[in-house]
Amino acid sequence: MSSLSISGVHHLNCGTFLTPLVGPLVSHVLLCETSDGLVLVDSGLGLRDIESPRRRLGAPAMMLGPALRAEETAVNQVEGLGYSRSDVRHIVVTHLDYDHIGGATDFPDAVVHTTCTELQTARAQRTLSERFRYRQSHLTALTNVQTYDEMTEQVLGFELAYPIDGVENMWLVPLPGHSEGHSGVALQVDGRGWLFHAGDAFFHHTTVHQSAPWSLRRGAVRAVETILADDIAAVRENHSRLRQLAHKTDRVSVFCSHDATMFEEMRSAAASMRRRC
Ligand SMILES: [Zn+2]
Q: How far is the CA of 1 from the centre of ligand 1 (A)?
């Protein structure tokens, strides 16, 4: 299979959550344009999740206040940009929680890329929290999956990174902690440098950028992050590594899935880049 280099990136919010105390959270999805089709990084919630949220996402997810807007789904935004759903060839996911994999069911022709560990953990569902976060309806729809546990490279100072089959300059970078097989996604974009989508490795921009005074909202976000973590010590270690990455060089933009401030910054930067071209 030939590899596709990334010529442009759109930043999409594919699922707003109006979580009590925490405020609005987004589901930050990348839509990458290549010379031969599209690549999604994460997929947010899907159309069927919006139609039957309690059955598809489960009761615990409803406590996080999903806004359930069909217009936010990746498939509707892809089609709104003038593409068809079959143009999406690959979906590279940071992990398989419902708010990251739900939208993949709207792209049955795409190959889903994840780590071996994440797929095995999601399928095994050994604990109650794993039964809440990984939804059977999402997992059974994954018929075209590429998993990774070897062929590693070194990327951005990370010793272990999996180059994505069929996509040039994109890697899964294991960052276990939020879930057992959780990864960041590093990508190099023509004319825009490096992007590092950290998924749920952190939840609030002050984790990697300059500290802000303590606020109720920031404390609530940290509490949610702790409750959702598989291994909170590993999460803290990831925070430190990502802080270093964000400060080491201005060539890399580091951002996470759910922070609305970071999402707006990245979306504006991409829009102004497109206007200049
Ligand atoms: Zn998430």
A: 31
